[in-house]
Amino acid sequence: MQITNETSTWLLQAKDILDEARRLKPGPERKELRQTAKALREIAKLEAASESAPERDWRPKT
């Protein structure tokens, strides 16, 4: 995983968790860490999409 200056905190946490999971033997704890990292990557993806989306005015038009 290449990390740039603008890498999300979520992605950095996911990387740390995956590094920890790789040190474990296969089993439930390792699987849980991998699932947590997957969720963090999804959060980072959603965050990036919301930051790149244009600002919208959600107030009702009158």
From TrEMBL:
Protein name per UniProt: Uncharacterized protein
Species the sequence originates in: Bradyrhizobium lablabi
Lineage: Bacteria, Pseudomonadati, Pseudomonadota, Alphaproteobacteria, Hyphomicrobiales
